[in-house]
Amino acid sequence: MKQSVVKIENLVKRYGDLIALDHFSLDIREGEIFGLLGPNGSGKTTTINCLLALLSFDKGDIEIFGKKMTPTSYEIKQEIGIIMQNVAVFDELTVYENIDYFCGLYISDREKRKQYVEEAIQFVGLDEFRKFRPKKLSGGLLRRLNIACGIAHKPKLIILDEPTVAVDPQSRNRILEGIAELNRNGATVIYTSHYMEEVEQLCTRIAIMDRGRKIAEGTTDELKRMICNTETITIEALALTDEIVKTVSELPHVYDTAYDGTKFTVFCSGGKHNLLRILGVLQEHSVSIGRVFSERPTLNDVFLEITGKALRDKGE
Amino acid sequence: MTVFLHNLKYECISTLRSREMIGWLMLFPIVLGTLFRVAFGSIYENDVCFQSIPTAVVETGENEVFAEVLKAVTESDDPLLNVTAADEASALKLLRDGDAKGIIYAGETVSLTVAGKGIQETILNSFVRQYSVYETVIKDTLKQNPQNLPAVIEALSADTEVCVRQSVTEGNPDQFIQYFYNLIAMVAIFGCISGLNFTTDNQTNLSPLGARKSCSPSPKYISLSAGLTGKCIAQSVCMVICVTFLAFVLKIDFGDRLPLVYGTAILGGILGVSMGFFIGSVGKLSLEIKNGILMTVSLVLCFLSGLMIGNMKAVISEKAPWFNAFNPVAVISDCFYCLNLYSDFERFRTKILIILFDIVLFTVLGMLFSRRKRYASI
User: Fold this and answer.
1) A11, A170, B28, B115: least buried by Cβ within 10 Å?
2) CATH 3.40.190 placement within chain B
3) Could you tell me which residues are beta bridge partners of residue A197?
4) CATH architecture label of B51-158
5) Which of B10, B21, B220 should one mutate to test binding to chain A, selecting the residue with the greatest count of A CBs within 10 A?
6) Among the partner residues B207, B213, B378, nearest to A55 by beta-carbon distance
7) ipTM, 2 dp
C-alpha cells in the first residue's frame, strides 16, 4: 500500500454557530489525484486552508508526509505547491518575474531556479507572454500563470483549489491535461471543484462534501455503485397514455418514470436490456418515437440521490 | 540571506513600478511643486528683489551738488532712484497716477512731496533728509577732494535704509518656503500607501497573495523585513526625486544644508512607510477601506501642518501644541524648518529623534500584529 501523504482526522471548524467542517476525515495516498467535490459553501476551501495551516480549527489532526502540519512546518511547506482559487500574483511583475519570485521562495540555487522557471513557462504554454504583466493576460492565461507560480518548484504535493473557475474551455482542457501530466511525473494532487465533469475526468479518488461533512468517498465507479440508479433512459414521444406509462413503470428494474408531454424518462436500477423492453412496450402500443438516449449515472446523480439536491447551482 | 535578497529585489521592482507609487509619490509632488512655484514665484520675486523708487524731479533752481548726487544714485548698478525730470504740473500728474512715489524739488534747497506712507516714500524722505545733513560735507568734498565724492555719496545712499534685515542663518527664511517643506513632508507621509499595500500583500487574511506567501517555506520575519526594507528603499528613491526636482529644477533655495534635507526627507519617507505598515496590520478591513482611511488621515495631517493654509501650524501650536509634536507631517516639516532657520542643530536633533522613535514604534507594533500565524477566518 502506498504511503499516506495527507491525513486528516475528525477535523472540526466552526464560525460562531456555523459548523464549516464537521468531523471531516481524509486519507490521501502517494500518487493519487484526489478530488474534493461539493457545491459552493460545502467546506472544500476551508479544508484546504486548514490543511495549509492558514486557518485555525477547533478539533482534529492534520498530518502531511507523516508529520503534523503547523504554520512553521517549513520542511513540509517546501514540498507543497498551492494554486489558490483567486489568482495570487504581483500585478507589477511580468510573467517571468512572477514565476521567478515564487520559485525563489523555495529554490535558492539561481541556476536551478532559472531552469525550473523556464520549464514552468513551457509547461503552462506562456512562452510568448513571458514579458507581459498580468493585467494584459486573458482570464485563461492568468489562471495558467497562477498555476505556474504554484508548481515551478516541482512540489511533491500540489493543491489546486478550483483552478478552472471562469476559464474558457480551451484553457480548461490545457489545465486539466497539465495536472494529469504533473501527476504522471510523480506529484500527488488534491483537486477541489464543483465541476463534476472535471473531477470525474481527472481524479482517481473522490470525496463528496456537503455542509462540512464527507458524504461519500471512493473511485468514480465506487461512488456510482452506491446509488440505486444505474441507467436513465429518455425517449422523445408524443401522446403517451397513462396506461402506457403505468405498463413501463411495472417492467423489471424500472424504479421510477417521468413524462412531461414530450419526453418520457425512465430510471432503471440494475438489470440488462432495459431499453429493449421499454421500446417493446411502446411498439406494442404503436407509439411514434423520436430520439432515444441512454445515460449512465453521473456524480451529480450520486450527489442528488444522497443529499436530495443538485450538485451544481443552475446556470453555472 | 538569499531569500531575504530575493524578496528585497522583487519588492523594490514591484513597488517602483506600481501606479500609486508613480502617481502619488513621483508625479503628484512634481505637479504640485510646479504649481506652488508658479503661484508663489512672482510674490517671491517682489518680496526679495529691491526695485528702484520712481521719483519725479522738478528743478526750481541751480544746484550742482544735488545734481551730482542724483546722477550718482541713478547711474549705479543697483540704482536707488528711477528719476523722471519734469515740470511741476507733470510731476504732480505722475504722483497722482502712482507713476512716481515722490517729487523732489531741487533748487537752492531740496524738498520732497510724497503721496503715501509706504516703505519707498520713507526711503525717499530719508534720502532727502540725509542729503540736507551731508550737503555741507558734499560741497566741501567737491571743492577740496572731488575724488572722494563717490565714497561720500555711497555713505549717503547706505544710510537711507530705515532698518537692516540681519539674517541669523545661511538658510532661506522666506515664508513661502514653508509650503515646499510641507510638500516634502506630504510626499513622505504618502509613503503610508506603500506601507499599507505591503501589509495587504503579506497577510493571509487580507489577500490571496498574502495567503500564497504564507504557504511558502520562507519564515514570515524574513519576508516582512525584506519587504519593508524594499518599500523603504523605493520610498527613499521617491524622496530623492522630489527634493532634487524642487532644489535643482524649480530652484527652491533650501539653504546650505542640502545633504541634511535629503537625509530628513528619506527618514520622513521611512516614517510614512512604517505608519502605513502599522495601520495596515491592525484589523481586518478591506484594502479599499484602509486606503480611504489612510488617505483621509494623511490629508488631514497635511492640512493641520499648514500645507493648504500657511499659518495653520501656528494656529495648532497655539490651541493644541501637543498635536504638532504628534503630527508626523508637522514633525517632518519642522525638521526642514529647523535645518534651514537655526544655525545650531539642537532643535533639528530633537525632531529627528521623534521621527526615529515613531519609525521604531510603528514598525515594532506592525510586526507584532503581522506575526500572527493562523487566522480564525480568511
Assistant:
1) A170
2) 51-158
3) none
4) 3-Layer(aba) Sandwich (3.40)
5) B10
6) B378
7) 0.83
